[in-house]
Amino acid sequence: MADTARAHEAPRREDARGEEATFFGFCEAGEVRIQRCPACARHLYPPRGACPDCGSVVLTWVPISGGGTLYSFTVHHRGGPGFRDAAPYVIGIVELDEGVRMLGRVLADVDAVHIDGRVTVEVAELLDGWPVPVFVPRAS
Amino acid sequence: MARRPIASIVGAACSVDQDDASLTPAAHAAQAGVRALAQAGLTTRDVDGLFSASAYYYLPTLTLGEHLGITPSYSDSSNIGGCSFVAHLQHAAAAIATGRCSVALIAYASTQGTDAASGLRSMSEPLVYEAPHGPLWPVTGFALRAQRHFHEFGTTSEQLAEIAVAAREWACLNPDVDVDQPLTVADVVGSRMICAPLHKLDCCLVTNGAGAVVVTAADRAADLVDDPVHVWGVAEAHDARSVSSIPDLVRTPATRTGPAAMRAAGIGIADVDVFQLYDAFTISVLLALEDLGVCPKGEGGPFVQDGILRPGGGLAVNTSGGGLSARHPGMLGIHLLLEAVQQLRGTATGRQVPDAAVALVHGLGGVQTSAATAVLGRSDWSPT
């Protein structure tokens, strides 16, 4: 296979550093914030040290509206590291209304998950002590 | 002015027994290296450019150099994933053209088939934005690509399955592969679901593997061997590391590397006799066929469904059996080159494509977020 990241180890919260830790710090406060470049009025995700568009190194952390659209998803019938016994579960990519995409768990029955469906971003702990953004489909 | 090859391959070999569990990856790579050099009447003393990438060794060219007694004046362990060795072809050609080295050895080995039971090796940093959601890398990323392709174009699991079926038919013809049972579409879609819509048989094998390629200037190559394989064009590109940052799940950097490599070589897609397309997953091949322009975007499913990829089906793709059915040692790029060289030398026993003169090798890395494409030609072929 093309790549194997920590193929057999459960992920650890303490591996998040710098702007990664800042992002999860907001999650721990129950909030999802992403970066925004004031110079070009563009949202950024994943977090960075400089705006990839204009090069500005002054970036702010802003709340998100909490709405998004499911771009794609996959039902895991085999669990990844740290989630061996949790399958089946759904991982999706959501395009936030801010225009950036985020990968995360979709908390719903498989039948309720549809590409291009609307979702709400919430915060949940999938691993103990590590709150992360998750996606909940809205009733259609 | 007539085009000239940018470099030539004068040796291409695997280790003595790629499945030998008594050797480390470095020892396997060293064996492949000396065997590839011997094809050109060269020894390790002649090598002044060393190229490698690895999930096993932090400083892979230092480790390989030590194993082989090579103290190079040019060293390149750049790693853009499984296609790195195809990209190294371009790096080696540039280094040779500018006098940095004269004989380049590109080598890779992995014993991940042996290691699978104890956990696959990786030097990846923790992917902290993705890992806490439970992805099964790299399957998750390719499944997300496949699901989006299904959504946009109506592609089906049965169409993807045909890619695995064709690979198995080629593998059955390959005497170097220990397999003789064909697959059916029903076998593939009936195999265990891993990350929907990808089943177990949509995924590549996990095996050992070791290969090496020797590159030198085209004019020198003619003095070394009767059957050099000329390198006419190479291109590389990447567009994301994170799955969430992929600009378009149904398109890959092959849309850039394919045209660039073919333009450098002075060919069009219809001039290619044999394709080696990095098949980490069935969807990888489908995306490559579309992005390289073998068929239009979105039409990969109907294009493959009637068996065009099977031996004699009309399009010679992954003639060894590929990563799906022959061998996939973590990074597949060097083996794509080995099979292309065999086809162009006319030594592909059991699965030789008649009169193969032009090969297109296309590799991927990450979740098909990097790409390297090379156009290779038989010794007597040149662009018109």
Overall geometry of chain A: globular
Instruction: Indicate the low-confidence ranges of chain A by residue numbers.
Output: 1-7
Given the structure, what is the number of helices of chain A?
A: 1
The proportion of residues in beta strands of chain A is 35-45%
Task: Walk me through this protein's architecture.
The complex is a heterodimer of chains A (140) and B (384). By secondary structure, chain A is mainly beta. The termini of chain A are far apart. Chain A has one helix and eight strands. In chain A, 36% of the residues are buried. Chain B has 13 helices and eleven strands. Chain B has a nine-stranded mixed β-sheet. In chain B, helix 1 crosses helix 2 and helix 6 crosses helix 10. Chain B starts with 6 loop residues before the first strand and ends in a 7-residue tail after the last strand. The model of chain B has no long low-confidence stretch (mean pLDDT 97). Classes of the chains: A mainly beta (140), B alpha/beta (384). At the A-B interface, helix 1, strand 4, strand 5, strand 6 and strand 8 of A face helix 5 and strand 5 of B.
Topology:
The complex is a heterodimer of chains A (140) and B (384).
Chain A: H1 18-28, E1 33-37, E2 42-44, E3 60-63, E4 67-76, E5 89-96, E6 101-106, E7 118-127, E8 130-137
Antiparallel strand pairs in A: 1-2, 1-3, 4-5, 4-7, 5-6, 7-8
Chain B: E1 7-14, H1 25-39, E2 49-52, H2 60-68, E3 74-76, H3 84-97, E4 103-110, H4 112-115, H5 139-153, H6 157-173, H7 185-190, E5 193-195, E6 198-199, E7 209-216, H8 218-224, E8 229-238, H9 254-265, E9 274-277, H10 282-291, H11 300-304, H12 322-325, H13 333-345, E10 358-365, E11 370-377
Parallel strand pairs in B: 2-3, 2-4, 9-10
Antiparallel strand pairs in B: 1-7, 1-8, 4-7, 5-6, 8-11, 10-11
Helix pairs in contact in B: 1-2, 6-10
Short description:
The complex is a heterodimer of chains A (140) and B (384). Chain A is mainly beta.
